[in-house]
Automatic annotation (TrEMBL):
Name the record gives this protein: 2-oxoadipate dioxygenase/decarboxylase
Entry similarity comment: Belongs to the 2-oxoadipate dioxygenase/decarboxylase family.
Top enzyme category: oxidoreductase
Extent of the signal sequence: none
Cofactor or coenzyme needed: Fe(2+)
UniProt xrefs under InterPro entries: HGLS, YdcJ_bac-like
Gene Ontology molecular function, alphabetical: dioxygenase activity
Keywords: Dioxygenase, Iron, Oxidoreductase
Classification lineage: Bacteria, Pseudomonadati, Pseudomonadota, Gammaproteobacteria, Moraxellales
Source organism: Acinetobacter rudis CIP 110305
Length: 459
């Protein structure tokens, strides 16, 4: 029996999810059109960028690239979600604690980990787990726990096929096809909420997010984000088309050499929901789903990340908190000013070890030159024109940005001060395994490409 690769299953699922979301949220389709136009223009204006994306293998994945997000209610749900994502070659990478930012969840991002797998299908899902223990009202917490304990967010077949995958280390074409359709059910929007509107309202009063997780049959996908090459152009395009994006773009300011991740979103949709009632149904609304766009730049080393966090922190401090609609202009000016301290050429970013790079051999006939991978040799090879470098794209998320995205669609008032500490251990216990360290992944990609390039130059 031929088994289908996890890359293929992930690609299929990503495409299917995009179709479903387009049907559920037509505005997402409009956004894809806008992103397509902006990307085409950006590429035709910048041959160097085109060349860079072709070298790194990102060119062909760009139009397919999406991330989504779901919010889960229990450890059990998270654990099974991890098993299901494993069928698609996705591992939990990184840990994001949103509690310090006033959002009662912690999270990871499920994604492929190897460069060639990412280039085949870079589909990622930001997956957060609700921290019910932070609900102060004990009675309400118990009600929420009971509600979550009763629900089953996966279809029987999805779980059965996952088990089959684990046993035979793969799925046949027929099984893989059924698997993606079954798993899609978990992400679907439900217009019916199996609880009373009164209970929903009390949960909502504790935190909107709690209502969003607990009141529904499943963890509906709440956004699906395409990747653009020019987010400022998208931001103004969205305003022209009346899509009302959030006031500021999250992340670093506009730069010649983009770093990490910049994101903007438009407000959540208000959707009709039928709540359970003694007699029939009671109608209400719920806002959860929204649109988001992102621009990705080079992955930073811990040293680069520290500088990023410092400059972002300084900006927020000068502003006196998180940016709002009222001080957006001032925020963007401060941000641009502070980030002048962040070198803005790939050469400097590489030399100062602020970011990660791929290395490519340019001249395969300089035998004898390359004896070691020490820094002096590498610098000489670059100067000689024998070695070329290109940025490794950031594949992950940013906790401060994520908190900003959560808040923009939950309403600003939903920021609560939770007096608690981060808890990676609790998260990993719920997940049933350790999360992958993203820095180790970037290091390995850089190191592999350097070794390969040197080996080719020595041939
Ligand atoms: C997830 C928000 C985080 C991002 O891109 O940072 C996120 C959520 O709202 O559930 O998707
Ligand atoms: Ni997102």
């Amino acid at each position: 029996m031929t088994l289908i690769s996890s890359n293929e299953i992930r690609s299929k699922f990503s495409a299917l999810m995009s179709e479903m979301y387009k049907n559920e949220v037509p505005l997402y389709g409009d956004l894809l059109e806008l992103v397509k136009d902006v990307n085409q223009t950006a590429l035709s204006k910048d041959i160097q960028l085109q060349d860079q994306l072709k070298m790194t293998g990102e060119f062909s994945r760009l139009s397919l690239e999406r991330h989504g997000a779901i919010r889960l209610g229990t450890a059990d749900e998270l654990h099974n979600m991890a098993r299901i994502f494993a069928v698609m070659g996705m591992e939990p990478v990184g840990y994001y604690d949103l509690v310090p930012a006033g959002v009662p969840v912690h999270a990871t991002a499920f994604r492929a980990v190897k460069a060639q797998d990412l280039n085949q299908s870079p589909f990622r899902i930001f997956t957060s787990l609700l921290r019910l223990e932070l609900i102060k009202d004990e009675k309400l917490r118990q009600l929420a726990e009971q509600t979550l304990a009763k629900r089953q967010i996966f279809t029987e077949q999805a779980l059965a096929l996952t088990k089959k995958f684990e046993q035979q280390e793969g799925l046949s074409a027929v099984d893989a096809d059924q698997f993606v359709h079954e798993v899609l059910e978990t992400f679907r929007w439900h217009t019916q909420a199996p609880m009373t509107k009164a209970l929903y309202d009390s949960l909502h009063e504790q935190h909107r997010l709690i209502a969003d997780v607990v009141a529904f049959k499943g963890p509906h996908i709440n956004h699906l984000t395409p990747r653009t090459l020019d987010i400022d152009q998208i931001q103004s395009g969205m305003m022209e088309q009346g899509m009302s994006p959030k006031a500021v773009i999250e992340g670093p300011p506009r730069r010649k050499c983009p770093i990490l991740l910049r994101q903007t979103s438009f407000k959540a949709l208000e959707e009709k929901v039928a709540f359970a009632a003694n007699q029939g149904q009671e109608l209400g609304t719920h806002t959860a789903r929204f649109g988001e766009i992102e621009q990705r730049g080079v992955a930073l080393t811990p040293k680069g990340r520290q500088l990023y966090d410092e400059l972002l922190g300084k900006t927020r401090q000068q502003l006196g908190g998180a940016p709002t609609e009222h001080n957006a202009q001032q925020y963007m000016e401060l941000l641009a000013k502070n980030f002048e301290d962040f070198p803005d050429s790939y050469a400097q970013l590489r030399q100062q070890k602020l970011a990660y790079f791929y290395y490519f051999p340019l001249n395969s006939h300089c035998s004898g030159v390359v004896q070691s991978d020490d820094e002096a040799t590498i610098e000489t090879l670059i100067e000689q024109g024998s070695l070329r470098f290109e940025p490794i794209v950031y594949e992950d998320f940013l906790p401060v940005s994520a908190a900003g995205i959560f808040q923009s669609n939950l309403g600003e008032s939903s920021q609560t001060d939770y007096a608690t500490i981060s808890n990676l251990d609790i998260f990993e216990q719920s997940l049933g395994r350790k999360v992958v360290d993203e820095i180790a992944l970037y290091e390995a990609i850089q190191q592999d490409s350097l070794q390969q390039a040197l080996a080719q130059l020595s041939n």
